[in-house]
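Sequence in, structure out.
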Amino acid sequence: MKKMNVGLLGIGTVGGGLYELLKSNITEIQRKASADIRIIAVADKDISRAKEVVGNAIEITDDAFQLVTNPEIDVVIELIGGTTIAKDLVIKAIEHKKHVVTANKALLALFGNELFALAKKNNVILAFEASVAGGIPILKSIKEGLAGNKIEWVAGIINGTTNFILTEMREKGVTFTQALSQAQSLGYAEADPSFDVEGIDAAHKLTILAALSFGIPMSFKDVYVEGIKALEQKDIQYAEELGYRIKLLGIAKKRDKGIELRVHPTLIPEDRLIANVNGAMNAVVVKGNMVGSTLFYGAGAGALPTASAVVADLIDISRATNVPANGFNEKQIEALPIYSINDAISGYYLRIKVSDKPGVLAKITKLFGDKKISIDAMLQKETKENKSEADIVILSRLALEKDINTVIHSIESLSATIGKVIKIRLEELSK
């Protein structure tokens, strides 16, 4: 069996998990691979930590550029993260004819088009299964298992931190701030959780999912992004009363003239499987025109699940798999228009705080009728803070975002309306 020498950039949590996985499962991996896969060098700034993980049998350096230019290395695994030094190292590795495996979703979302072209020019593989949903083989499934389908839409819980927070808010009745603190204490959220709670991490992953699903370039700048910080406990409760759960979803939909790309809190009917994905778990629903809806569920982060996806890429490279990076022939990549969020079509949850006066509800429903937007359900709740105020919760049927925004503006202009209208989009995920 030929040898495949691997150089590892970064021996932190995931890098350590990868080393452990390769050591524990090497017999099984060699049964499936077409080469003897061995890590022969590791680059990390913390050499003493690296030695604790891999011992003295493997070359350790703090010079990552020395590793990526090492002529004995066939594959470079990038687990540093970020889009600065990691980008430079990946480019250097590709230019030196190394195959590259990365879990770096931000790098691919922002610079994937450039890196794929460079990899093709140098006749090497750039593999990235671990960049989306950790150990769930979602990218391979879209590129290969579902390759005979036209993908109509993809919707996923692709950030475990926000899913944990929303689960805590629903199950324990805590506030966003309390749930975030719990997530941080358990290691699900960073000290600065902005990338997670503002939806940026999910948008990076959605960019990759959309590119593989529809054969479009990576288009991160076109993703509409809205996080979960504005959600209140009462919104979780009202959604439950109406038969819905709130999840932060990444949604990509193919429409007649282009693609919708959006990340935001979303109401999902409580009987959908994805609505019952709780804690820090991930799940992705893919709708193919022939297979229908398929659900992929599992651990979206963590050392060993992510390492599992990295090893799957290594095995593919050992087999000389040459599936196009995006799953499409590069001549078939289409720069389709990305719809503005104003042209997105969705159902809507609106929470409106009003003075509890006669005729207010009639005025509000008339505004919906004026824009020909149907109302599906409605609640009126006296607020705990003030008995002379009420929360009106309305679920609309499908409408254009710009039309619902017109209705919201008109509602906010009513003398009885107090503050801003809270809007959360709603997806049935059934068609």
